[in-house]
Amino acid sequence: MISTLLAASLAAYIIASILYLANLHIKRKYFAAYGTAAAAIGFALQSIRLVTQAIGGVPPFANAPEAMFFLSWTIAAIYLLTFIRFRIPALGALAMPLSLIALALVYRSPASNGQPFAGDVWLRAHIIAIIASFALFAQAFCCAVFYLVQNKLLKSKKFKGMFRRLPPLETIDALGFHLVAIAFPILTLGIAAGIAGVKFAGIRAAYNAETKLMAAGITWLVYAIYLIAHGSASWRGKRANSILIIGAVLIALTTALHSFM
Amino acid sequence: MYLVVIGLNHKTAPVAVRESLAVSDEDLPKALESLRACPSIAECCILSTCNRTEVYAVTNQRDDEETILDFMGSCNGNPRVGIEQHIYRHRGHKAVEHLFSVASGIDSMMVGENQIIGQVKNAFCAACDCDSTKTVLNTLFQQALSVGKRARTETDISKGAFSVGYAAVELARLVFGELSGRTVLIIGAGKMGELTAKHMQAAGATSVIVANRTLSKAEKLAAALNGRAVPFESLPDAMTQTNIVISSTGATEPVVSREEMAKIMRGRRERPIFMIDIAVPRDIEPSVSELDNVYLYDMDDLQSIVQESVDERQKETEKVKEIVAEETRKFSAWMKTLEAVPLIKSLREKLDELKETEWQRSSAKLSHLSDKDKETVRMMMQSLVNKITHNPLVKIKEYSSCADSCEKLDIARELFGIEPDEMEDDK
After folding, report:
1. Fewest CB atoms less than 10 Å from the CB: which of A18, A139, B51, B427?
2. CA of B307: how far to CAs of A68, B114, B155, B167, B344, in Å?
């Protein structure tokens, strides 16, 4: 049943992604609504699996595939929450594919054989916090991409295509900033927990902890720069949102590092 | 009973002819009165806007259309010969289709515009006030209003920008989202600037600042827009505070240069600014738009948005036509059932009469019966009549919506021995 739920949610996210992408390109009212419905169904299926697994003694931080699954679930959760609050279906065209990629990686993660993570409390806190912050950053990345696209369309003065279906610049800029402002402290806590884990539990040897912490540290720095830049003069708009893209690339690298080393 | 529309619009007649035939709101009751006075016209309604004058009528004979033409000619002392070449006539379902198309906006000069729905409503209300509409036009106009609404909710026929001012609002919304709480700065006290600012205010912009070389003119415009005037020299200051700038001065040299704007943007801490330059020659150096967080548009940009919306709406007309066709079919089917109504009524009356005569004749012989038994006999008669007529009545209703309804209804009339003139009163 667990694998059926996984496959079913994967299918739902594929449908949601296609519908949301279609919504950007083809003018039909119901694409966005059906996309949201598919996303909500996929999320519900994922939630059932998450709870069933946790009850069965396989928490999100148990191994790499479970962590990936948790990341996918969190991205979907944050997208649906922002949708309820701001009604920006355009974001789904990027957020749902991201969630879908994370979900697909559940099948591809090298620890599929079930090799468990160490059961240390610091490590658990580290994994949960890092994943939550990554999901928030992923959503901020979606905002940044649409900001840059919309900015380009508005500047180029070619009034064709999707520009009417994209969210207003100020709205999307502010949303990205708020997401990072929430994610940043969580990331900080996650990194702190990771360092504590290395210090107190001595798990350095098993996990290449140094390299990973370094990658996380650089990511942290980039988002710190973004937060400062967004608040100060002359770095608003395009430049600030470009930093979010760099941050997202670093996150992808860090995730890859954690999954395959 | 014939439904007809006779009229002209922007497609068939030049403005001079349209003007001469237009019926003003004040003259409308009088015009309706004189049309209603014609014995051949059972119902009428006049729809007169700046782009069309149309008379919708239900006549007793087909030839009665001529009366309407005479009326239109005489209306403004125009000779009828002069107008005939511009006139179109639609009868029956074509007339229905025409009104539905008009109400849904696809017959308008600016396709999809919303004003027409109010104009149709007003025309209908005026006719109702003059008591010149009955069953057919009442149902037709109410249906037309609902078709108009349906077209606008189910398709994008009325979406997008209809004017330059509207296009400016649409663009500003793509930058800021909601415009409520935003400040608009108008440079120059021109008419276009005022108009665009009014659009912004209607969209929610709260405060207005006017800057003009002649302060008194700025003050006058500011008063009209509920804003405040500032001297031209403090323009950079004003630009630091506003979200939206509308520039329409008559200056021959640019009012805002790129260097100045860069300085202003630093002063704004790079908060986005939306600028509309509707002056010719332009007030704001075009290179200003290269600056980050500055969104600058000129008249051509706005025009191209309007044009794009027009194209988009044109594409939607096909969908609207489908809705119109569907609603026309429904209405025509309903109208045909109307033809059966007088026949059914006469038939019922005839049978009731028969029943009553038979009862009178036999009641003397049945005097020995108790009241209760008499009642039973009467009920039996009624039930027999009902049972016999049930099937014919259903069939008559069905016949009325057939293609050859007239012939079939005539046969039904013959079978039950109902003379056509018996029904005349019901018409």
Report:
1. B427
2. 48, 18, 19, 10, 55
